[in-house]
Design brief:
It is a single chain. This protein has one domain: 2,3-Dihydroxybiphenyl 1,2-Dioxygenase, domain 1. Strand 3 and strand 4 form a beta hairpin. It has an eight-stranded mixed beta barrel. The chain is of the alpha+beta class and 210 residues long. The chain contains four helices and twelve strands. The radius of gyration is 16 Å and the shape is globular.
Amino acid sequence: MNLLHQVDHLIYATSDLSSGVERVERLLGVRATSGGQHPGRGTRNSLLALGPACYLEIIAPDPEQPRPAAPLWFGIDDLRASRLVTWAAHGSHLERVAAEAKARGIDLDPVSEGGRRRADGVALRWTVTNPRAMLGDGLLPFFIDWGSSPHPSTTAATGATLVDVRAEHPDADRVQEMMRALGVDLSVTRGSTVALIATIDGPKGRIELR
Protein backbone atom coordinates (compact mmCIF):
# COMPACT_ATOMS: atom_id res chain seq x y z
CA MET A 1 0.00 0.00 0.00
CA ASN A 2 1.19 3.54 -0.77
CA LEU A 3 2.55 5.22 2.37
CA LEU A 4 0.30 8.27 2.01
CA HIS A 5 -2.73 5.96 2.12
CA GLN A 6 -1.42 4.47 5.37
CA VAL A 7 -0.95 7.73 7.28
CA ASP A 8 -3.89 8.63 9.52
CA HIS A 9 -2.14 11.47 11.33
CA LEU A 10 1.23 12.91 12.25
CA ILE A 11 1.84 13.98 15.83
CA TYR A 12 3.67 17.25 16.46
CA ALA A 13 4.36 17.62 20.18
CA THR A 14 5.00 20.95 21.83
CA SER A 15 5.20 22.28 25.38
CA ASP A 16 2.69 25.06 24.66
CA LEU A 17 -0.21 24.63 22.23
CA SER A 18 -0.48 28.28 21.18
CA SER A 19 3.23 28.47 20.39
CA GLY A 20 3.09 25.21 18.44
CA VAL A 21 0.12 26.37 16.38
CA GLU A 22 1.85 29.67 15.62
CA ARG A 23 5.07 27.95 14.53
CA VAL A 24 3.25 25.64 12.14
CA GLU A 25 1.26 28.59 10.79
CA ARG A 26 4.47 30.52 10.11
CA LEU A 27 5.87 27.57 8.18
CA LEU A 28 2.79 26.56 6.22
CA GLY A 29 0.53 29.59 6.09
CA VAL A 30 -2.44 27.69 7.60
CA ARG A 31 -3.69 28.04 11.17
CA ALA A 32 -4.72 24.79 12.83
CA THR A 33 -8.26 24.36 14.12
CA SER A 34 -8.88 23.79 17.83
CA GLY A 35 -9.41 20.08 18.39
CA GLY A 36 -10.28 19.40 22.01
CA GLN A 37 -9.17 18.03 25.34
CA HIS A 38 -8.11 14.48 26.16
CA PRO A 39 -9.86 13.93 29.52
CA GLY A 40 -7.65 12.31 32.12
CA ARG A 41 -4.57 12.42 29.88
CA GLY A 42 -3.66 16.04 30.59
CA THR A 43 -3.36 17.10 26.96
CA ARG A 44 -5.26 19.02 24.30
CA ASN A 45 -4.75 19.49 20.57
CA SER A 46 -5.26 21.49 17.41
CA LEU A 47 -5.62 19.95 13.97
CA LEU A 48 -4.71 20.70 10.37
CA ALA A 49 -6.01 18.56 7.51
CA LEU A 50 -3.33 17.14 5.19
CA GLY A 51 -5.71 15.23 2.92
CA PRO A 52 -9.20 13.67 2.89
CA ALA A 53 -8.38 11.20 5.69
CA CYS A 54 -5.09 12.53 7.05
CA TYR A 55 -4.16 15.35 9.41
CA LEU A 56 -1.48 16.94 11.55
CA GLU A 57 -2.16 16.83 15.29
CA ILE A 58 -0.44 19.52 17.35
CA ILE A 59 -0.56 18.28 20.93
CA ALA A 60 0.50 19.92 24.20
CA PRO A 61 -0.18 19.89 27.94
CA ASP A 62 -3.64 21.14 28.88
CA PRO A 63 -3.41 23.74 31.67
CA GLU A 64 -7.13 23.29 32.41
CA GLN A 65 -6.64 19.68 33.52
CA PRO A 66 -4.88 18.41 36.64
CA ARG A 67 -1.51 16.88 35.88
CA PRO A 68 -1.95 13.09 35.54
CA ALA A 69 0.13 10.78 37.70
CA ALA A 70 1.58 9.02 34.66
CA PRO A 71 3.91 10.81 32.22
CA LEU A 72 2.20 12.59 29.34
CA TRP A 73 2.00 10.64 26.10
CA PHE A 74 4.63 10.99 23.35
CA GLY A 75 7.40 12.14 25.70
CA ILE A 76 5.93 15.62 26.04
CA ASP A 77 7.32 15.99 29.56
CA ASP A 78 10.89 15.65 28.25
CA LEU A 79 10.62 17.75 25.09
CA ARG A 80 13.54 20.06 24.43
CA ALA A 81 11.92 21.53 21.31
CA SER A 82 8.67 21.15 19.38
CA ARG A 83 8.90 18.34 16.83
CA LEU A 84 7.21 15.48 15.04
CA VAL A 85 7.41 12.66 17.57
CA THR A 86 5.46 9.80 15.96
CA TRP A 87 2.52 8.98 13.70
CA ALA A 88 -0.62 6.90 13.49
CA ALA A 89 -1.56 4.52 10.66
CA HIS A 90 -5.07 3.63 9.55
CA GLY A 91 -6.12 0.28 10.95
CA SER A 92 -9.05 -2.05 11.54
CA HIS A 93 -9.51 -5.26 13.54
CA LEU A 94 -6.70 -4.03 15.77
CA GLU A 95 -6.59 -7.06 18.04
CA ARG A 96 -5.70 -9.10 14.96
CA VAL A 97 -3.17 -6.47 13.83
CA ALA A 98 -1.49 -6.61 17.25
CA ALA A 99 -1.46 -10.42 17.29
CA GLU A 100 0.11 -10.62 13.81
CA ALA A 101 2.73 -8.02 14.79
CA LYS A 102 3.58 -9.94 17.96
CA ALA A 103 4.15 -13.07 15.88
CA ARG A 104 6.80 -11.05 14.01
CA GLY A 105 8.42 -9.86 17.24
CA ILE A 106 6.79 -6.42 17.47
CA ASP A 107 4.67 -5.64 20.53
CA LEU A 108 1.77 -3.26 19.75
CA ASP A 109 -0.29 -4.25 22.81
CA PRO A 110 -2.39 -3.27 24.56
CA VAL A 111 -5.27 -2.33 22.27
CA SER A 112 -7.48 0.20 24.04
CA GLU A 113 -10.30 2.66 23.48
CA GLY A 114 -10.04 6.44 23.68
CA GLY A 115 -12.16 9.49 23.16
CA ARG A 116 -12.45 13.24 23.30
CA ARG A 117 -15.11 15.85 22.71
CA ARG A 118 -14.74 18.31 19.84
CA ALA A 119 -15.16 22.02 20.43
CA ASP A 120 -18.64 21.77 18.86
CA GLY A 121 -19.64 19.10 21.39
CA VAL A 122 -19.41 16.08 19.09
CA ALA A 123 -17.90 13.08 20.89
CA LEU A 124 -15.19 11.12 19.07
CA ARG A 125 -14.34 7.54 19.96
CA TRP A 126 -11.53 5.38 18.64
CA THR A 127 -9.68 2.12 19.15
CA VAL A 128 -5.90 2.24 19.17
CA THR A 129 -2.82 0.08 19.64
CA ASN A 130 -0.49 1.26 22.39
CA PRO A 131 0.59 4.86 21.62
CA ARG A 132 3.02 4.79 24.54
CA ALA A 133 5.11 2.06 22.89
CA MET A 134 7.04 4.58 20.72
CA LEU A 135 8.63 1.72 18.78
CA GLY A 136 11.74 2.58 16.82
CA ASP A 137 12.02 5.72 18.94
CA GLY A 138 8.59 6.82 17.65
CA LEU A 139 9.28 6.19 13.95
CA LEU A 140 7.05 3.12 13.80
CA PRO A 141 3.37 4.00 13.88
CA PHE A 142 0.67 2.95 16.23
CA PHE A 143 -2.62 1.96 14.57
CA ILE A 144 -5.98 3.68 15.00
CA ASP A 145 -9.55 2.77 14.03
CA TRP A 146 -12.13 5.57 14.22
CA GLY A 147 -15.07 3.19 13.89
CA SER A 148 -18.26 5.18 13.29
CA SER A 149 -16.78 8.51 14.45
CA PRO A 150 -16.20 11.18 11.81
CA HIS A 151 -12.55 11.39 10.85
CA PRO A 152 -10.96 14.48 12.44
CA SER A 153 -9.65 15.69 9.07
CA THR A 154 -13.24 16.51 8.02
CA THR A 155 -13.45 19.45 10.43
CA ALA A 156 -9.78 20.46 10.58
CA ALA A 157 -8.33 23.54 8.89
CA THR A 158 -7.67 23.00 5.19
CA GLY A 159 -5.09 24.34 2.75
CA ALA A 160 -2.18 21.91 3.23
CA THR A 161 -1.38 18.57 1.59
CA LEU A 162 0.96 15.81 2.74
CA VAL A 163 3.45 14.96 -0.02
CA ASP A 164 5.81 12.51 1.69
CA VAL A 165 6.99 11.17 5.04
CA ARG A 166 10.45 9.77 5.68
CA ALA A 167 12.62 9.03 8.69
CA GLU A 168 16.22 9.09 9.87
CA HIS A 169 17.73 6.91 12.61
CA PRO A 170 21.26 5.97 13.72
CA ASP A 171 20.27 2.29 13.40
CA ALA A 172 18.33 2.66 10.16
CA ASP A 173 18.58 -0.97 9.02
CA ARG A 174 16.99 -2.29 12.22
CA VAL A 175 14.14 0.21 12.13
CA GLN A 176 13.55 -0.37 8.42
CA GLU A 177 13.26 -4.10 9.06
CA MET A 178 10.64 -3.41 11.74
CA MET A 179 8.72 -1.29 9.21
CA ARG A 180 8.71 -4.17 6.76
CA ALA A 181 7.45 -6.55 9.46
CA LEU A 182 4.50 -4.22 10.05
CA GLY A 183 3.82 -3.80 6.34
CA VAL A 184 4.60 -0.08 6.54
CA ASP A 185 6.23 1.64 3.55
CA LEU A 186 8.01 4.48 5.34
CA SER A 187 11.65 4.85 4.23
CA VAL A 188 14.33 5.03 6.94
CA THR A 189 17.84 6.28 6.19
CA ARG A 190 20.83 6.59 8.47
CA GLY A 191 21.10 9.84 10.42
CA SER A 192 22.96 11.07 13.47
CA THR A 193 19.70 11.65 15.34
CA VAL A 194 16.16 10.28 15.23
CA ALA A 195 13.90 12.33 12.96
CA LEU A 196 10.45 11.97 11.42
CA ILE A 197 10.25 14.31 8.43
CA ALA A 198 7.06 15.33 6.62
CA THR A 199 7.05 17.12 3.28
CA ILE A 200 3.95 19.31 3.08
CA ASP A 201 2.56 21.65 0.40
CA GLY A 202 0.82 24.78 1.67
CA PRO A 203 0.15 28.42 0.86
CA LYS A 204 3.81 29.23 1.56
CA GLY A 205 5.08 26.51 -0.77
CA ARG A 206 6.63 23.13 -0.02
CA ILE A 207 8.20 22.79 3.42
CA GLU A 208 9.74 20.10 5.57
CA LEU A 209 8.37 19.68 9.10
CA ARG A 210 10.46 17.72 11.58
